Amino acid sequence: MSRSAGREPRRLTRWWRRRSLRTRLTVIAATAIAVSVFVAFQVGIELLNWELQDTAENQLRADSRVLAPDAERAGLAQVQLPPYPGSGRLVRVILPDGSTRTPAGQPALPPVSEHAGRVAQGASADLMESNDSDGYFIYTLRAGDGAVQVARVADDDSPITRFGLGMLLIGLLCVVGGALVGRAVARTGLAPIDRLTAAAVRVAHTRDLDAGIPDEGGGEIRRLIQSINDMLAALRDSRRAQRLLAEDAAHELKTPLTSLRLNVELLIRLDRRGTLDSALPAESRTRLLNDLGAQVTELSTLAAELTDLARGDVSDESTELLDLADVVVAAATRARSRVPDIEVALDVTSVWVSGRPAALQRAVLNLIDNAGKWSPADQPVQIRLRAEGASAVLEVDDAGPGIDAADVPRVFDRFYRADSARALPGSGLGLSIVQRVVDAHGGRATVARSARGGALLRVDLPAAAPPAPIARLTAGDDTAPR
Questions:
Q1: How far is CA 215 from CA 49, 230, 235, 411, in A?
Q2: 356-388 residue pLDDT tens
Q3: What fold, for 76-154?
Q4: How far is CA 480 from the centre of its chain?
Q5: Which residue, 41, 122, 269, 423, has fewest beta-carbon neighbours within 10 Å?
Q6: How far apart are CA 141 and CA 76, in angstroms?
Q7: Cell membrane as a keyword (predicted)?
């Protein structure tokens, strides 16, 4: 029994959740009206019952006061009782010996109660009684040596019954009308939702993200439409960015792939002719193989940067409290191992930030690689890290030719390469990755001209409170923070 009793509420809940919003509003409206009518019906019945009962009791008292003086004058045994009218009022006289007299043809009243007998004996002046089983109201009034009683019986066709039937009919009509009104209100109120749903379905089927949803209604409907339009705008921007990334990637891959294909075809054609050794001297063959290796390396770097850039976020690694000086030192060490010709001079202090270590190291490494391409062989890339107010400031300074003023606004754009850099290796993605990492950490990346005439790339990141205690890094060599 307990299991089946527990299943019923769950079934009702599932049934309710499967109903449409329009059906729910209709049911709620009809239920609210039904409850209101029922409460009004109960209150009305009680008020009418009290009023009718009070009127009946007052009428019984008035009739008893008319009969009592006659009984006292003529005597209880001889007083002439009014004939029974056929319905309504009933009378009875209680004699001193406890016997009773009633008019001829009148229905029998319930036996004289103990309390009414005490009134006849003079214990009290009067008594109002109600007999719920028979539906009688009986008023007993002391008269002479006995008492007179006037009674009324509740009529089946009483005003209360007629009122109840009328209220029941009105309640049913109100419930039906409430359901119809609720249905109409739900249809009218949910019309914007229906149009919004149709528009969303149309966008889903056509994949047309440019088709915005018309702004209509007010309040919650307007906010919902605006939210969906904002979502469509974000999807348009995301799809446009993906398309631009694919187009730019295809454009950037075209040149190295073409060069690689031509060199490989040349080697295959000469090998098939058997003239590889005679047509390509050892020096030319070495230079060609070096070019192939460089092109493969460039393609590998470009593919890695495209993969990193296409993720849409910095990485899956979690944010942690870290010393940015350790990140800078690690990036400088990696830069030296990759390109031994790069000379890096560090001037860093311990500055703590909240960030992703691998992403920040990749950004610093890209800054060093970019500076190393431009800095002369006898001039080191200078890296400075310091705390400045509430920010950690990282500066990468090279002694190269600097950046033209026309190129400054687009330095951090994807695949952008200045005219003077097109002959150098690179994909134009390094600084755009730097920009994305810095933005993800709530920082800012800028470019200016350094005091040595080259480019000065500056990164500002929000500083964090260091954990206690912190041991300050000391200078050891040119790769250690100082």
A1: 57, 12, 19, 39
A2: 888 888 888 888 887 887 777 778 888 999 998
A3: Beta-Lactamase (3.30.450)
A4: 50
A5: 423
A6: 13
A7: yes
Q: Is 299 helix (H, G, I), strand (E, B) or coil?
A: helix
Cα–Cα distance between 270 and 261 in angstroms, integer? 14
Sequence ranges of the domains in the chain:
76-154, 217-283, 314-462
Long-range contacts for 259-264 (Cβ within 8 Å, ≥24 apart)? 259/291, 259/295, 260/292, 260/295, 260/296, 260/299, 263/288, 263/291, 263/292, 263/295, 264/292
Cβ contacts of 211 within 8 Å, gap of 6 or more: 199, 202, 203
Element (H, E) at 382: strand 381-388
Collapsing DSSP to helix, strand or coil, 474 comes out as coil
Look up the pTM and report it: 0.44
> Are 76-154 and 314-462 equal in CATH topology?
no
Q: How confident is the model over 409-443, as pLDDT tens digits?
A: 656 665 555 444 444 444 456 777 788 888 888 89
**Contact of 461 with 359, CB cutoff 8 Å:** no
CA distances to 157, 313, 354, 361 from 322, in Å? 90, 20, 6, 12
Residues of the chain with pLDDT under 50: 1, 313-314, 418-427, 470-482
CA distance 332 to 41: 87
Both tokens of 27, joined, read: 């049911």
Determine the pLDDT at residue 352. Answer: 93
Cβ neighbours around 20 below 10 Å, total: 10
